[in-house]
Amino acid sequence: MTSSTPRRSGRQDGFLRLLRAQWAAFRSGRGRLLALAASVLVTVSIGLLIAGGARTSCVTGKGEGPCPAPLVGPDGTAVRDKYYFVHQPLTGNGSITARVSDLIGQLRMPDAVPGVRNVKQGVVPWAKAGLLVRQSLRQGTPYAAVMLTGEHGVRMQYNYVHDVAGGPHNGPQWLRLTRSGDLVTGYESDDGARWTEVGAVRLGGLPETVEIGLFATSPGVLWDTAAAFSQVTATFDRIGLEGANGSWRYDDVGVSMESDGTTPHHPGRAVASGDKLIVTGGGDIGPATVEGGLRADLMLIGGAVGLIPVLIAAVTFVTAGNRRGPSGAGLPAVGSAGARPPGAGAAAAGLPGRPGVAGDGLSARAIGAEPVGRAGAARLLVAKAAVAGAVAFVVGLVAAGVVVPVGLALLRANHNPIQPITLGTGLRVIAGYAALSAAAAVLALGLAALLKRAVVAGGLAIALVVAPHLLAGAGLAPWLLTVTPAAGFAITQSVPAFAHVDVVPSLLGGYYPLPPWAGLAVTCGYAVFALGAAARVTPGGRRARPGTAT
After folding, report:
1. What pTM was estimated for this model as a whole?
2. How many Cβ atoms from other residues are within 10 Å of residue 538's Cβ?
3. 3-class DSSP assignment, residue 450
4. How far is CA 540 from CA 2, 315, 316, 332, 364, in A?
């Protein structure tokens, strides 16, 4: 124990000195410092240019003007709450049972003939028709519903962001919704006799009297880069109510008006036919991933371009040593110190040379006289990666820490609706971009150590990190954001993805194929692999003698 402790302590002290030496070497490169300054400038400038030029307007019953603030649900998420509702008040406990015997719809498709509306029969995957209980008709209030969907079977959804899967039914299906205090439970049945629970939820603060009934709604049909109108029509029969015995009320909740202020835009309707109710509605009850306003991550739309100088700085931090000798990648070469002019190997490795030779102020003795072979070269490579990653993190933190809050302030000043964002999400977006910058820098450094050519390594780093993000931003090959290091941009998404909401597969629409931390993990995995591969193939050499350079 006593014999190994000084050696371990000496190695730790030596590595700290090596880190300081590499930091001194990094900041001695004026070009690298200018590149990092350019990264901040580019990221901030593009973001603020977009924020300053953004203008949104909406046509309402009062004419065209600023869009209203996003509708917010119980947990602060921007939501949509538009549907057709046939309902009755329910005081106390009770239930509603009905069979959805038919589900059809209409979809607005791209016009085959300019100016001629192209509407066809069909139902979108998340069209919904079923039973609903909610606090009141006021939009954004708590609710629970059990429903049959277009292509996702039976579901129970509540408070906009929660979704529970039931059976995979697409044909006629019995549904039941019960209320007991603040506990609401949804059931499904194939025959109306044997029932299966889909889910149960407690709606806190549910009043004594609630609204209970039948609803229908349908989110827009997705085109390549946009969403268009759709409606769903559901036929309900075998309707039974317990605890409510009033008359049916009909409400087109959330319907918007044309510019004349009196004509409903895409209105819903309900028709009674014998013991059946045929209900038609459009819209959605769920998260507003696009309609909820401009997103905070749009402020980092220039972040991909801003990463290019960071990648170049990381590459040149390694390959700059190639200009001083044939060692490659600025790391120690095979052979003895006598194979090169005195001090040349030390300069390339970031170690001090002999008196009068440029170096980073660190002797072989200072790092514990480690082998200059694979172990010593690997320690040097890790030190370079630590410095490059730390510097890139700070640069990304500064850029995101400026452009996100300032950009959002500009958007608000220009009366744009903004997607609600919590403090935690805002911090994750800012710190996440910094972490992405660090991982990308380490990846570029590892590629440079492997390839030993600045142009090739820099080009490959840009192709892996930046190009897929730009393609996805244009709506092309979004799958690249799952298999390339560009997946890490998912860490900057400020509006979460929801499985029960389909979106256009474009970054501009807020689409990321991976969750935030999973995307960042992909980038970090690439960085670790590149650095590890570079450490394994780095050439070795002889053990350094105390007081000499290698």
Report:
1. 0.82
2. 25
3. helix
4. 30, 21, 22, 7, 15
